[in-house]
Description:
With 254 residues, chain A is an alpha/beta fold. Chain A has 9 helices and 10 strands. Chain A is globular, with a radius of gyration of 18 Å.
Amino acid sequence: xxxxxxxxxxxxxxxxxxxxxxxxxxxxxxxxxxxxxxxxxxxxxxxxxxxxxxxxxxxxxxxxxxxxxxxxxxxxxxxxxxxxxxxxxxxxxxxxxxxxxxxxxxxxxxxxxxxxxxxxxxxxxxxxxxxxxxxxxxxxxxxxxxxxxxxxxxxxxxxxxxxxxxxxxxxxxxxxxxxxxxxxxxxxxxxxxxxxxxxxxxxxxxxxxxxxxxxxxxxxxxxxxxxxxxxxxxxxxxxxxxxxxxxxxxxxxx
Amino acid sequence: xxxxxxxxxxxxxxxxxxxxxxxxxxxxxxxxxxxxxxxxxxxxxxxxxxxxxxxxxxxxxxxxxxxxxxxxxxxxxxxxxxxxxxxxxxxxxxxxxxxxxxxxxxxxxxxxxxxxxxxxxxxxxxxxxxxxxxxxxxxxxxxxxxxxxxxxxxxxxxxxxxxxxxxxxxxxxxxxxxxxxxxxxxxxxxxxxxxxxxxxxxxxxxxxxxxxxxxxxxxxxxxxxxxxxxxxxxxxxxxxxxxxxxxxxxxxxxxxxxxxxxxxxxxxxxxxxxxxxxxxxxxxxxxxxxxxxxxxxxxxxxxxxxxxxxxxxxxxxxxxxxxxxxxxxxxxxxxxxxxxxxxxxxxxxxxxxxxxxxxxxxxxxxxxxxxxxxxxxxxxxxxxxxxxxxxxxxxxxxxxxxxxxxxxxxxxxxxxxxxxxxxxxxxxxxxxxxxxxxxxxxxxxxxxxxxxxxxxxxxxxxxxxxxxxxxxxxxxxxxxxxxxxxxxxxxxxxxxxxxxxxxxxxxxxxxxxxxxxxxxxxxx
Lengths: 254, 524
């Protein structure tokens, strides 16, 4: 479904992405792990063009996105964005639109659907994320967890082939993490192709079919989830896992 | 290249020249054709020239009103009054909005060089006026050699013959203080404002207003002043000739004498011109027989002060009517300003580089020049290149353009304060840049800019007063006209203030309500 090959990106004399390659098959849930600053978010955001890259290529299904800046990127990006949805750490709901209007905005004005059918589909999505009663609420009146579930519904309204999650639970209180995690797990069970950048190891374990470790802008280990956690191969993976375990146990003691 | 440009310029000059002379040549014919002589004056200048009729403030009286009727009749047409800011009347003449200026304009060499100046319809003198109880000022001698050794402070109408007279003759002996209105200067002396000792005034003005200022009196004899003349466009020679012969005839047959006598303006100086002739064309000397003084006294027009509740009842509704002009200008100009401002800011932020540069230039140019200048350019200078708009349209355009620069900057701040995440969310959903701007960014920015824009709306609303320079009579101008013609500065001032407040306060309330509604969007 998604094939990233030899991606390089330089930012302030520093290679944020340094020959990063990644393959995600249809129906797979790929989790990107790695220390802070390893380039996880950047890699994720190159897929739908929120970040450009200097060398390498990205293929989504049959659409090829070349390195940029280039006029040749405009058309493939348009196609990719219709098929790839994204959920942000800070939700980024449109504060001047109701929950329902947030969800039907893109189907109506990007895909040209009529309001009635867009609304109908939006309501089934809201039911799916457990917020049907909040359709007419303003985003600012919702909790963080609720906002993130609306953001997921909004991304799903475009019926995307792939969903990108950029640290979807990092901005949430632990008490709200569960409700968002549950929605994502449900999506995984339904066969939705997803790429998830996260710091949450438990979350990673619960949804991932494959896990990839980024280190200094490069994917150094890609493995099935169980294999990755139980039998890591690369020294960087072992160091990373050790450190997060240590950090988490510290957090638990707190 | 240079050659081509020269040709274009040459053609432009020729074209402008042609249209102007074509319009000019036929001025007299045009007047006769339409049957109307349009004369320009400023009611704010007040009596005895032109001022609202005390018994029907919608009409005008004054010796120049009678004079205009007389001149029109001599041309075989009727007179039509056109209100203009006094110092801008020559520009109205250039623009072609009026046929003549008839408003106490004195003859000067520079005016004679630029305009057609008629033979004087009145020879005016200057009168020094001081406080009756001021013993230090009894004669001109006291002015020239002040007893206490302290220079006298003399108020004059700015740019008037009185100012020239003092500047030329006594620049070292007196302090000349320039005032905006004749009655303001008189009141200033009466109250001793700003250390004022005296006022040097056109004699007819003093004669007209003296009843309203019982604590003031004339000092010494009047001194030579100058000539009130009619201005025409330089090229309208036939019109000027007709006016000259009408003035001459009026002086001879006593028509002008009867007009001036009504305002107690007829005096020895007029007679000394020796222009009166009898029906056979013989000079009649200074016989009072043509207009017996007794009869003239019946119809004497004087300054009539109207004060208190009376003036509010009589003139209040005129202020209300003028307030509707203020409101109309504001509610049309502001939405236009916001629209232009938004377009400019979007061009600046998102347009191609050269367009963006143009938008910046527009914003800086408009922001860096005063509104009064912009109005002036639109109304008086654009006709030079063939674009002529009515005063009302010019006022709307001027206000809209002036405020568009400020709205553009407000909108820019609003748009730039929308978090990057909003752009990213819209982009990730496949929305194009234009769609994102239109449906996500601008609507959110609009909510942010409502408070500063409400401020600007109120500022624009008050700036409509500036439009009086291009003949639009709105609330402030109407106030000055009636305050000066009645002396009811305080009463009408209060009414005017209440009217302004009555219009701006609801605006603040609406804005506050809007804001609250949007806050609900953000919170509950």
